[in-house]
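Narrative summary of target 7.
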Amino acid sequence: METVGLGLIISLSLVGCEAPLNLEGVEAEKQKQVRRTDQLQGIAANATTLVVVGSDGIVLTSPLDQLSWTRHQLDDAPTLVDVAVCPDQSFVALSIDKRAWFSADNGLSWQSKKLPTAEDLLDLTCAPDNSIWVVGSFSTVLNSTDKGESWNETTLNEDAMLTGIQFVDQNTVFISGEFGLVSRSDDAGMSWNMPEMIPNDFYTHAAYFTSATEGWVGGLSGQILYTEDGGASWHKQLTPTESPIYGFYSNAETLFAFGDHSTLLRFNGQDWAAVNSHGRPVYLRDAVQLPSGELLLAGGSGSLFPLAIQSTSSGK
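Modeled conformation, tokenized:
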């Protein structure tokens, strides 16, 4: 009995000596507008406002000319995978649960519209005429001319996931995706040319075209390929990385590529050179240039930071 009593006293003493749980760090993180748990996926900017989207329905907004982030969260906390700005200055975002989200007040409020498809969806853009275009599995393309009230759906009948869509001008549109699929429309998406397939089942994470003939695609292992004949042939360009390439961004002078492990590359006219992003070893998913000339980068673990870049020409 004495042994049991002594053990109980020791146990109670140990409990009494435990340090109180310190939640100050957790609470401090919750007060931040941008948090380490944020997995950011897209950036878009109109004439006055930056909008960044990511996991858990997170929308971050800031004045374009002075970074000061305000945090918003959409109802039901959907995973947002992309955001685009339209010529009418409105924003549209895509969530993984097949909804398009529209904002006409610089990201302060959003209205969702269901996309009537059984396919998974990965990317969207806003066309020069303000129509919305979304792509996904089974080479599916959807578009809406009335802000998501109704949708038209078509497919190339290829069992491939489309990962990107880009309007080069009001008539020329490219879609790209799995198994090296690249297809062009010359009539604003009303019809599509027979798909060209990049050799070796190249998985296109990102694509960027400057015209109906010239473009780049990025994929696994740091691979970047270049075409000057609209995708009929592709040439590998040297890169200093083995990390996957997730996106391209071009300003008036320079073409950039970005990807996993804080990879940031600059095109020098023939090949690609590394740019020190000074970031944590996380993925970089999107970028936009600020009025200051800095490049704003967004990615994993709450990575959202401006980077000073040197002005240089990236002629072909």
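Residues 8-15 have pLDDT under 50 and may be disordered.
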